[in-house]
Amino acid sequence: MKERILKVITLLIFSSLLFACSDDEPIYDDNWVIDNSKEDWEEQIVDGSAELWKTGLPVIVINTPDGVPVKYKTTWVEGATFECFNPDSTLNSSATTRIRLHGNSSRACPKVSYNLDFDEKCSVLSMPPHKRWILIANHFDKTLLRNTIGQWMGRKFGSFAYNPRNQFVEVILNGKHLGTYMLIEHIRQSDNRVENGYVIEFDDKYAEDDIVFQSVVRENDTINVNIKDPDIEMDGEEFNHIKELINNLSATLYGKDPFNKTTGYFHVADRETFADFYIVNEISKNVDARFYSSCFANLTTYDRLYMGPLWDFDVGFGNYVFENPYTINEPTGLYMHKCPWIEIMLKENEFLKIVSKKLKRYYNHEAEIMAYIDEQANSILNSIVLNERLWNVLTKDSSNLSDQEIKDLYLKQVEWLKNWIHERFIYLKTKY
Question: Do residues 87 and 21 touch, judged by C-beta distance below 8 A?
Fold first, then answer.
């Protein structure tokens, strides 16, 4: 083990790496987090070759064969090694993996995300064993928290059977420290993720080889339905069955009698998860969630459609960073009421009752939500310093700032986010 650690350290002579010591092994539950808020940032000299600093985060080390760079979303780099170290530097897990880029618009960022596909199922940081994982850079989000907040809200307050688990980590790729990442479970159909049926994504950004069809909603308007997992044949029996069911659902919702007791949409679509999907994405004013990108559903083998798992909140919660012709970043105003399908469901009294009841649970637990945000921010606060020195997301040039000044800038962003959510709740209470 010492030889393995020293090998990693040698690769980091010209970079700053953060480690922390923890007496406890992380134990998985739906709300778990490795708490390092009481850890001091202390200098260590190991073999005189590198300065190590403690952040309290696990460290993931990935090496590709001969240091081959990872440059493409559609091409895997095969035969890479994956090692995850606990905050006390002991080995948590290891695997052989292939790796490629992940994401769409985020691939243009200097700090990019990565898709991992292990050769064999492996448990990482007490999360259930699987082959598929994603390392999210969260580069658009100065707090790095929006994705984990959205996921946690879905797990804590929603009726989803599954929402991806995640953990903040440090990442080293081919000897280069890349900063603070979020390791998250890839949404796949399996026993410990989406347990049965088919994973479906509503997404305008599908690839050429994806299994996709279009379903008509409004007149001259369609949504793209991407059957993500498991693999099925285009125009095969399963494909045609799913296509017929989804098209019938669209036709029912946009037909003359969508709420009929015998033939209404709710005989196929689950009201509870559709309401939860609406609520979390309305709270966050998530631009992608109007069936534009990364909107997931699962269709069970007995032909019932459930929304979720939730995904992709980095440009939500007042953080739409692209050209903004709307008032999307304001905490006021509705957004998800124009989402296909949901725009019709919101006209049904029963659906509105469910939405109103569920929203009250969020309002009543606002203090718990804010405490969770503080907990997460504290857990990565020391890591943020190195991340900022690498990527300069809080300021254009962090080289002249002290560590404390960087932390103060970061905490101002966190406070802004909390205030935005508070103001969002105040507004939504006037609507529901």
Answer: yes
**Which among 177, 172, 173, 208 has a CA at the least distance from the CA of 77?**
173
pLDDT value, residue 18: 34
Q: Is-contact 94 81, C-beta < 8 A? A: yes
In the block, residue with structure tokens 């929006």: 146
Task: Report yes or no: 333 and 327 within 8 Å, Cβ to Cβ.
Answer: yes
Characterise 88 by phi-psi region: left (phi > 0), alpha (psi -120 to 50), beta (else). alpha
**Would you say residue 95 has pLDDT above 80?**
yes
DSSP notation for 348-387: SHHHHHHHHHHHHHHHHTHHHHHHHHHHHHHHHHHHHHHH
The dihedral through the CA atoms of 115, 117, 122, 127 has a sign that is positive
pTM of the predicted model as reported, rounded to 2 decimal places: 0.87
Helical H runs in 135-290?
146-157, 237-253, 271-284
pLDDT computed for residue 301 by the predictor: 87
How confident is the model at residue 108, as a pLDDT?
78
Count Cβ atoms within 10 A of the Cβ of residue 107 and give its class: 0-12 exposed, 13-18 middle, 19 or more buried.
Answer: middle
What span, in angstroms and rounded, lies between the C-alpha atoms of 186 and 403? 34
